[in-house]
Amino acid sequence: MTETYREKVFPALAGALWLTFLFLDLTGMADSTWVKFAAICLCGVTAWTGARTPDGKLVAAALTLTVCADVFLLLLNRDMSDQRAGVGIFIAVQLLYAYRLYLLRGKAFSRWGLPLRLAALALCLFLLVLIGWAFSAGLTAFAQPPEGTVFHLPAFLGFLLSSLAAAVSPVLLPTLFYFSNLCVNCAEAFALCGRKGLGEKDLRRFAWGLLLFVGCDVCVGAWNLGLFEDFSRVGMWFFYLPSQVLITLSPTFPREKK
User: Fold this and answer.
1) Residue ranges per structural domain of the chain
2) What phi and psi, each to the nearest 5 degrees, are found at residue 252?
């Protein structure tokens, strides 16, 4: 009965919600926020129906965190603190998926995945230090230009850099680290497809789910930059819910005895 729900009823319910909020977004007839959130909650609840194995429990935990992230990014989204909280939770989600891939490889790191993750972390830390230095040095230079100087170029450039740093650093750097881990997870998942001893169908669901997740975040980035707004506004959720449905169904599900 549970397997029937997961493989047939759940996709049908999620598909109905997907079509509903896409229709609302395209027509503007009503706000689709709660329909979208209900769809993500459906994925979170359904994930726990497959939590009969350690792998299933790990995915269920990640989907639960996904619901929590969407509370901040979708329902609240009042200010920068909500965005930081949402991105921070999504970082935890991607780290859980990275741990899942580590277990699926037999508790082994991929030869290129770990260096890429460490490089992304090092880059973010370097930029954080650089931005912090630019912020303090820029304000100091701007506040104390040489006497008798009407326009001091280094001070002006420092002020611009520090102002830019103050505007983007609270969310940009965590987002960069999150997105880099998502991309590495996606590549590692596809690299695992076809490996003997692993569920081919389940891994492909996970890999394609992560790829759709990447598509969603590309749309989010385009929307924030004001690019392709008509498409990116709808595209982010066009990709997002199917990605979560595939990830929800990706754990190997033990057959029920008849």
Assistant:
1) 2-248
2) -65, 130
Say what the pTM is. 0.84
Give the span between the Cα atoms of 76 and 74, in whole angstroms.
6
Chain centre distance of CA 40: 13
pLDDT in tens, 195-206: 765 667 788 999
Spatial CA neighbour of 58 closest among 217, 209, 252, 200: 252
| Count of other CB atoms within 10 angstroms of residue 35 | 19
Are residues 196 and 180 in contact, defined by beta-carbon separation less than 8 angstroms?
no
Residue 30, Ramachandran bin (φ over 0: left; ψ between -120 and 50: alpha; else beta): beta
CA separation for the pair 63, 47 (Å, rounded): 7
Residues 6+ apart with CB under 8 A from 187: 113
> CA 26 to CA 101: how far, in whole Å?
37
